[in-house]
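Hi there,

I know you've been waiting on this one. I reran it after we fixed the sequence typo, so this is the corrected version. Both the input and the resulting structure follow.
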Amino acid sequence: MRRRILLGFGTLTIFVLLVLEIPLGLTYANRQRDQLSTELQRDAFFIASITEDRLEVDRSTGLQTTIDRYEHRYGPRVVVVDRAGRVVADSDPLPDADSTMRSRPEIGRALRGKVATGRRYSSTLHTDLLYVAVPVASGGKVHGAVRLTYPTSVLDRRVHRYWWNLAGVGAISLFGAMLLGALLARSATKPLRRVEEATTRFGAGSLDGRAPVTGPAEVRAMAETFNGMADRLAGLIDAQEAFVANASHQLRTPLTALRLRLENLQSEASGEAAEDADAALDELARMGRLVDGLLALARADSAAGVAPTAAVDIDVLLADRRAAWDPVAAERGIQIVAEPARDHDGVALHALATADRIDQALDNLITNALDASPDGAEVRLRAEAHGREVTIHVVDSGRGLSEEDRRRAFDRFWRAGTGPGRLGGSGLGLPIVRTLVAADGGHVELRPSPAGGVDAVITLHSTTR
C-alpha cells in the first residue's frame, strides 16, 4: 500500500509538472523570440532614421563607425545597402561577401518599401539567423535598406537554460512531493501495519493479541471490528476448552460405571449370556476409545497454534519414543528400531515443532504401526533432511494399504478394517496426527513402504541450532 501511495503521488506530481512547465517553457521561448524580433525591428528603424539623410545624398561618411559601435554593444550584425542593393556599410563583413545584396529576399522586400522579418538558414554562415530588414525612405521614396541579423544559437542557449531551470524546479518539486507522500504513506500505513501484526499474532495462536485503535477513522473502525472478533473467538475457544474438560469427566464416569457393571454380570453369567456380556464389553471398550479420540481431537483443534514452536532434536525424539513403546512392542515380539537422525555431514537433525504435539503425533503413528504389524515384525523410525525440511518416517511391516485407502485414511471415523495388517481403532488417530502436525506448519502423508507396509511421513520445517 505504501508503494502504491508513493507511486500515486509521484505520477500526479509528474503530470502536474508536465502540464505546467511544458506550456510555460514554450511560452517563454515564443516570448523571447518575439521580444528579440521586436527589439531588432526597433533598432533597425532607429538605424534607418540616422542613415536616411546620408543615403539620400549618396554619402556614407560615419555609417561604418555607427554600426560598428552598435554591434559591439548589442551583438546583431548590421548591413546597410543603397537603393541599388549595394553594401554601403557592414558591421561584420565577410572576406568573400558579395558587394550587392539585392538578391537576398529580405533586402529585396525592404527595397520595395516593406518590412521583412523572419528566420532562415544562412548558407554563408552555416547557421540559422533571425533577421529584420526595413526600408530607408523619405517622402515615399526608398533610398536603401537596413538589415539586422542575430544568430538563433544565442536565443536557443537562453531558451535551453530556461528549460534546464524548469527541470531543476521540477526535480525539487518531485522530491518534495515524494517526501511528503512518504510521510503521508507512513502515517496511513503504520496503523494498518499494527492491525496486520495483531492479526498475525492472533492467527499464530496468541489469543490476547489485539490491534491498537489508532490512525484514521476507517483504520480505527477496522481495529475495533477485529478486536471484537478476537474477543468472541477467544471466548469460543475458552468455552470449547471448558467443554472438553467437562465432557472428559462427564463421559468417562458413566462409561467406567457401565464397564464395572458389565464385568460383574460377566462373572456371574454363563453360556450365551456370557458371550453377550463379552460383546457388550468390547463395544464399551470401542466407545471408550471413540470418546478418547474425540476428546483428543478437540484438544488438538483448540491447541492448534497456541504453543510456540522450537528447535526439536529429532535424534533424541526418536530415541525417546522407541524407549517409551519398547515394552508394548515386546509383548508381541515386535522390535522398534530408531535410526540415528543425522544429515550427510553427520550433524543431528532439528525441526521446528512443539514437543508435546510431535510426541503425541508420533505416538499415534507408532500405535497404528504396531496394530498393523504381525507378531515378530519390525517397526522402523528414521528421519531425513530434504533442503529446508525434515521428514520423520514411521515404517511398519504390515500388509499395507491401497492408494485409495491411504488417501481416505485421514478422514474422520474412516477405518480400513481390524486385525493384524489392517488399521483399526476409532478412525480418529490419523486426523489427530494431521491436526497436530499442521499446527506446527507441517503435513503428514502415508506412502507405501518397500517391505509392503505403510510409511507414515511427517514433514516439518528444519532449523539449525
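Quick highlight: Residues 418-424 have pLDDT under 50 and may be disordered.

Best,
R. S.
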